[in-house]
Amino acid sequence: MSAENAVIAAAAPRRSFGRFALKLRVSGVVAFLVILGAIFAVLSPQFLNAQNLSAIVSNAAILSIVAAAQAVVLITRNLDVSVGSIMGFAAYLTADFAAQHQGIGPILILMPMIIGGMLGALNGLLVAYGKVSPLIATLGTMSIYRGLTYLYARGQEVTSNMLPRWMLETVDLRVGGFPVLVILAVVVVAILGAFLRFFPVGRRIYAVGSNPVASAYFGLRTERIVLLAYVICGVLCGLAGFLYAARVGTVTVILASGWELTSLAAAVVGGVSVTGGSGLVAGAALGAVVLATIDNGLVLLRVPEFWRMFIQGSAIVGAATADVIIGAQIRKSLQSRRRGTI
Amino acid sequence: MKIRSALLSAAAVALTLGLGAASTAQAEDSGFKIMMTPKWTGFPYFEAAARGGEAAAEELGDEFVYAGADHADVTLQVETLQNFLTQRPDAILLAAIDLNAVAPVLKEAMEQGIVVTTFDADAAADARDMFVNQMSYKQAAKTMLDCALIDAPEGGEVAFVAASPTSPNHSAHIKFMKEYIETDPTYQVFTVVDTQYANDDDAKSYDVAINLMQAHPNLKVIISSSAVSAPAGARAIAAAGRAGEVYSTGFALPDAIKSYLEDGSQKCFALWNPYELGYLATYVTHLKLAGKLELTPGTTFEAGKAGSYTVGEGGEIVYGKPMMFTKDTVDDAGF
Amino acid sequence: MTVFRRIPQWELLLIVLTLCAAAWSSNLSPYYLSVDQILLSTRQFVYPGILALGLAVVVVLGEIDISLASILAFGAVLFSKCSEVGMAIWLATPLVILACAALGAFNGVLVTRLRLPSLAVTLGTMGAYRGLAFIVGSEYGYTSFDSSYTFIGSTKLFGALPVSFLVFLALAAGVIFLMHKTVFGRRCYAVGNNKEAAWIAGIDVANLKTQAFALGGGLAGIASLVWIGQYGSARGDNADGSILLVVTAVVLGGIDINGGRGSMVGVVLALFLLGTIRNGMGLANMAGPTQTVVLGTLLIIGVLRPLIARGIARLRQQLASSGHAGN
Questions:
Q1: Is A321 helix (H, G, I), strand (E, B) or coil?
Q2: Could you tell me the CA-to-CA distances from B63 to B36, B58, C50 in Å, in that order?
Q3: Do A265 and C117 touch (CB under 8 A)?
Q4: What are the sequence ranges of the domains in chain A?
Q5: Which stretch of DSSP H or E encloses residue B133?
Q6: Interface pTM (ipTM) of the complex?
Q7: What is the DSSP string of C169-220?
Q8: pLDDT by residue (tens digit) across B129-161?
Q9: Distance between CA B206 and CA C98 in Å, rounded?
């Protein structure tokens, strides 16, 4: 009961200390990353060289975009398990289109984003206006989008020799020593983060997630905001699917299957609350870096495959625990400050 | 064993005569109902095998059905097989996902007199009549190492990427490659440094290739018997700017690796003709059903357009026609 | 609220849908309509069905457990270990069920004591438990069992009635009784409806939730016994990917994913519906992707149910009020 009281008590001053609290949440994942890095650096001499660190962040780049997209939906107290299927659907259709229209230029990148946005909108409509539980709605569309991709592909795949050269060459570029994928991911996450923080619509996304009932009372059109969150998620998944296709070079119907859970894991590790209202997209993106770091470090250390599954699973539980503990600390400190001012 | 399979085929004939009322009018050596299920549908490799099977069935006047789930899930494969059984086919062809988990349902099929043939990936030996193997494990291992030699004639460090530790083909390939590298002077230029797993997933394969290059700075060749991992590895090498220093090889569909061979970043990949493998598997199944094939080791037979083959130990028929794709031959693959 | 009571029972609709699906199936394939065939086809749904019973209890409490399939894999590997050392089945069964229940309870403890969201916890333990199953059973797993271990999963009575199906029916009856006729069940619904009120009413919420998670784990242990009999193979990757089907069954059965509402009978009926459709499509050799799309669409329709129900209710209200106005 005391904890329940604490939540109620903390709710009032939360707005003024909101930024501070959010910073602390992100610092949780940063701390986790630093500790993880320190362990790997001690155990493996190759870990800390620039090339390896660059390899880690480029492996994490696409997932970090998807995790950030997932985070937007999570912040509204919803969930999207169709992200992998949206990526696959958007990527396959776009790749197939590009294969048939070799002359098409970089304008092509709009195609997966539009497709993704439409698929995301359908999710959003089901959840926001159909009042369907987000888990179930997106479980359903996950099967539908993936099934349609299969039916469209008819047992074919789009291979690297069919894709326009520029697509493959662009994702391999390095600008000032940084892989272009990483730069793109940072830019996307930064824009998204700024949007959520500095734009009224963005802040409403948080408001809807922290208290949907109160938001409705205050005149927020919760349905529209939830729909918007799903559309943003879909657009970014479409983009991520396109990048995935260009990066791997072979576009198959199973592209990004399983990413629904990976993106959720990244978001959870990054301190995004699955109960809505709190967390930063940057945290989710860093969560993706944590997962990529674990993958990379365990290869360097030659840890057997099964231990990798075990360790990654435990890391997710560990991160969730750390997040709750940090959250409780924040509430406690907020409460004591409040008492102090009174 | 011989008596048992003879009895089984006799039972199969009896069953088709007794139950398949529609087929009684047809001659005894055609009009069989053959059902095929792959590991999963929608993968070009298995679709090619299915086309081959269909061609053979058409040629021989058999009925051919191809069905399966859209992802590799053993419980779904068992469900498909169960549904096949209900439809009373004369024969079942499958590429097993888990050699043991499909065994109970296959044994049930054999008890009903259905001829069971595995292709591409075997089931437990007592749960099927024949296994049409694309290549013996040794031959597959040797082919991949030959490719690695084309990539890096001077030898060096090699790492393996398998789908998962539970995939029997991949584990066996790796075992024999290690054996060759240890014992055969031709391949002793190589040293094995690592084995990683990528679940037949392209992004995971790509990341694993990147991580392997980080973990082993002197790495020369990444070898994978997964047709997903080998092209993804080639792409990762190019993207990391290590083309010409590190090579990816192993089994891959020609379309998937064409561009890397053409731009010179890779030199050699291998595979066999999945179309002809499906054709052969269906053809031998037909021969067995028609009573024209004894599964005694050493028996030689003609399989239509696919040529002539010999039955090996334990009902294994090795297709055994490796194809190595280089810049000059990749366009002639023909499937 | 009275409006909700007047809508046709979801269970009734499920039965009608199942009959429609059966009619459709017999139209799709001449092999469908046979008692033997239908009985035999139930085997495919026993292990996901048992998992669904456990998950339903957890969902009624407003939580979720997506690690159940991983617990099954762990249980299967543990059963094989027991068989390997020659342990008698009557000893191994309670042992494995207890071990699996402990894994479930561990999820529950993390959720209730540390106040972690169950989705996050079980997302993690899903990987961790599967890793554990591999660590215990190695990559090769086990393929040979004492015949007493495989009895439940592989035996057919009268040539067509799978023992595993009887086990499922018994467990389903047990869970229906537990959730609808006992104090435990009533408390579960009370907590799912309103945690605070239940707490004030003196229900130990944390304890109850942990028990529910343990029950789910224990049922997964029983499902693993069915698994080894049916598939003759125990390995860390057993039942990988089946959790989606399990969640689908629970939701289609009418259990509110936010807790507190829905009946266990509905879950059982939903399993029959899904089984009938899958069986029919399979016998018609329908392409895998088509099946996926059909099942996904069905799930969406299942959850649009409240909307449909509300639509019907509104229509009725309008009719009623217009009738009233006419008077």
A1: helix
A2: 11, 7, 38
A3: no
A4: 2-341
A5: strand B130-133
A6: 0.83
A7: HHHHHHHHHHHHHSHHHHHHHHHHH-HHHHHHTT--HHHHHHHHHHHHHHHH
A8: 999 999 989 999 999 999 999 999 999 999 999
A9: 41
Q: Which amino acid is at C264?
A: M
Are C65 and C116 in contact by the 8 Å Cβ rule? The answer is no
Structure tokens at A63: 């997932």
Cα separation of A251 and A159, whole Å? 6
Query: Is the CB of residue B162 less than 8 Å from the CB of residue B174?
Result: yes
Nearest chain A residue (CA) to C237: A306
Buried b (16+ CB within 10 A) or exposed e, C248-267: bbbbbbbbbbebbebbbbbb
Residue B198 CA: distances (Å) to CA of B165, C137, C158, C238: 10, 20, 45, 18
Query: C118-137 and A305-341 are packed helices; what angle lies between their axes, rounded to 10 degrees?
Result: 150
Kindly report the length of chain A.
342
Mean pLDDT for B53-75 is 92
Say which of A1, A136, A261 has its CB closest to residue C123: A261
> What band does C198 get if pLDDT is binned at 50, 70 and 90?
confident
Rounded Cα distance, A231 and C311, in Å: 26
> Please, which residues bridge with residue B249 across strands?
B223
Domain extents in chain B: 2-135+273-321, 137-271
Band (pLDDT 50/70/90 cuts) for residue A339 is low
Contact C283 B83 (CB under 8 A): yes
When CB atoms are compared, the residue of C128, C196, C251 closest to A136 is C251
Cα–Cα distance for residue pair B270/A107, rounded to 1 Å: 36
How many angstroms separate the Cα of C248 from the Cα of each of B73, B205, C268, C311? 17, 31, 12, 23
Please report residues of A whose CB lies closer than 8 A to that of B47. Answer: 155-156
Chains that contact A by 3+ CB pairs under 8 Å?
B, C
Question: Nearest CA of chain B to the CA of A154: how many Å?
Answer: 7
In this structure, are residues C145 and C76 in contact, taking their beta carbons and an 8 Å threshold?
A: no
CB-based contact C115:A293 (threshold 8 Å): no
Residue B269, CA atoms < 13 Å, CB-side half-sphere: 33
Q: Residue C314 — very low, low, confident or very high, per pLDDT cuts 50/70/90? A: confident
Tell whether A150 lies on the interface with B, counting CB pairs under 8 A.
yes
Domain spanning C2-326: CATH 1.10.3470: yes
Which CATH code is given to the segment(s) A2-341? 1.10.3470
For residue A294, what are its two tokens? Answer: 């674990």
Q: Name the class of domain B137-271.
A: alpha beta
Q: Does domain B2-135+273-321 have CATH number 3.40.50.2300?
A: yes
**DSSP class of residue B160?**
E
Would you call C131 an interface residue with chain A, using a CB distance cutoff of 8 Å?
A: yes
Q: How many CB atoms lie within 10 A of CB C29?
A: 21
- The nearest alpha carbon in chain B to A305 belongs to B197
Show the tokens assigned to A28: 């949780």
CB spacing of B235 vs A160 below 8 angstroms:
yes
- What ranges in chain A are assigned the alpha helix state H? 2-11, 14-43, 50-75, 83-100, 110-124, 134-153, 165-172, 180-198, 200-210, 212-217, 222-248, 259-269, 281-300, 305-341
Using CA atoms, how far apart are residues B202 and B163, in angstroms rounded to an integer? 11
Residue C33: closest CA among chain B residues belongs to which residue? B86
- Give the pairing type, strands B156-162 and B219-224: parallel
- Give the span between the Cα atoms of B256 and B276, in whole angstroms: 19
Q: How far apart are the first and last CA of chain B?
A: 37
pLDDT of residue C300 exceeding 90: no
B78 HSE (CA, 13 A, CB side)? 26
